């Protein structure tokens, strides 16, 4: 089955700086890669996703890049703000039917004011 | 309007007891899930149902029994609770196909289960 590794487990950055979280996946058949944000005490929520037919996707201050050959994908947050502090999860799945979504182990991002 | 709701939000109980968590979604989605999030924040899928039919059953002890009376509801019953069952349990739902809105999973608010 799919295995997703996520690094780092914790990350602290100064407000205004950029943050990068990296994930690798094991199953080359996976072709859908979402990122979820979970604020303290709240539910996980989708912030951005990418399918394997594109290499990069951007939405305002967040972007995701995908390298299918190397089987890794990354989340980039620019101009970080205090409200970006949360746990971020990457995930991977085969974009077909009801294949399960496999989550990474999470990255706790702290923005230092 | 709440998209995915769970009850109760908090559940404190003793070892050996039996408890249930209820989940409802009003998004019209075909697929629902139960996830367990432990103290280290790991999110692991437990079960998935599509139109009331079980499609994913991870290696979960058979003390856990999901039940889907209709496609808008997925309940989780836990027998003979153990200390290790303490966690936050999230229900989620998603459309069945990318043509119905993609595979975003909408999570409920979670149920924090504490077994003493």
Describe the protein in words.
The complex is a heterodimer of chains A (113) and B (116). Chain A has strands at 4-7, 10-14, 19-25, 32-38, 45-51, 56-59, 62-67, 72-77, 86-92, 102-103, 107-112. With 113 residues, chain A is mainly beta. In chain A, strands 2, 4, 5, 9, 10 and 11 form a six-stranded mixed sheet that branches. In chain A, a hairpin with a 2-residue loop joins β6 and β7 (62-67). Chain B is an all-beta fold. Helix content of chain B is 0%, strand content 54%. Chain B contains no helices and eleven strands. Chain B has strands at residues 4-7, 10-13, 19-25, 31-37, 43-50, 53-57, 64-70, 73-78, 87-94, 106-107, 111-115. Classes of the chains: A mainly beta (113), B mainly beta (116). The interface between A and B is medium-sized, with 22 and 24 residues.
Short description:
The complex is a heterodimer of chains A (113) and B (116). By secondary structure, chain A is mainly beta.
Let me know the number of strands of chain B. Answer: 11
Order of helices and strands of chain B: EEEEEEEEEEE
pLDDT average of chain A, as an integer? 94
Class from secondary-structure proportions of chain B: mainly beta
Over all CA atoms, what is the radius of gyration of chain A?
14 Å
Q: Helical residue percent of chain B?
A: under 10%
* Poorly predicted runs of 5 or more residues of chain A: none
Number of strands of chain A: 11
Largest interface: A-B, 22 and 24 residues
Helix count of chain A equals 0
Gap between N and C termini of chain B? 34 Å
Question: What fraction strand of chain B?
Answer: over 45%
Number of helices of chain B: 0
Terminal-residue CA separation of chain A:
41 Å
Shape of chain A: globular
Biggest sheet of chain A, in brief? 6 strands, mixed
Shape of chain B: globular
Helix content percent band of chain A: under 10%
Structural class per helix/strand content of chain A?
mainly beta
Strand proportion of chain A, as a percent range, falls in: over 45%
